[in-house]
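[Discussion] Sanity-checking designs against the backbone

I'm trying to build intuition for which residues belong where. Below is a structure token string of 150 positions. I'd appreciate it if someone posts a full sequence so I can compare it with mine line by line.
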């Protein structure tokens, strides 16, 4: 019985060692640098967004899941009251990101939790560009205004 207990302890120690080694080893990562010059970016209409809102995906696919990329609002763009299914993280690069009427200029960071209703937009006199990252696919769930009718 002692011999069996010794084998069990040995096996458990081995499993723990293998598990901690696996957990501490670096994940397989791309060993190449990813470099994208601004002049080489190909802006496209952001699927699911109002006309004129453009995007460039840097990683992931915003129609399928997690992603990160640049978004561009045309001058005077304003999105109506809406929410996103997943949290949104934004860093303003050019112009401003307007959140519920307050403008955040270049270098500003905005983090909007999933499901939080808000209005957003750019600025009146120029386009606005920002980096955006979401843990799920992009969506724009518009909140229809209540007109008092039932």
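Best answer:
Here's mine. Compare freely.
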């Amino acid at each position: 019985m002692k011999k069996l207990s010794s084998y069990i302890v040995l096996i458990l120690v081995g499993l723990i060692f293998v598990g901690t080694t696996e957990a501490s080893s670096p994940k397989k990562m791309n060993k190449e640098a990813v470099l994208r010059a601004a002049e080489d970016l190909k802006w496209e209409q952001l699927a699911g967004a109002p006309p004129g809102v453009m995007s460039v995906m840097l990683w992931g696919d915003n129609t399928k899941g997690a992603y990160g990329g640049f978004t561009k609002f045309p001058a005077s763009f304003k999105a109506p009251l809406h929410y996103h299914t997943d949290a949104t993280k934004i860093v303003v690069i050019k112009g401003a990101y307007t959140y519920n009427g307050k403008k955040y200029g270049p270098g500003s960071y905005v983090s909007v939790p999933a499901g939080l209703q808000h209005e957003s937009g750019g600025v009146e006199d120029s386009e606005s560009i920002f980096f955006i990252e979401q843990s799920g696919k992009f969506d724009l769930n518009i909140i229809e205004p209540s007109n008092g009718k039932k």
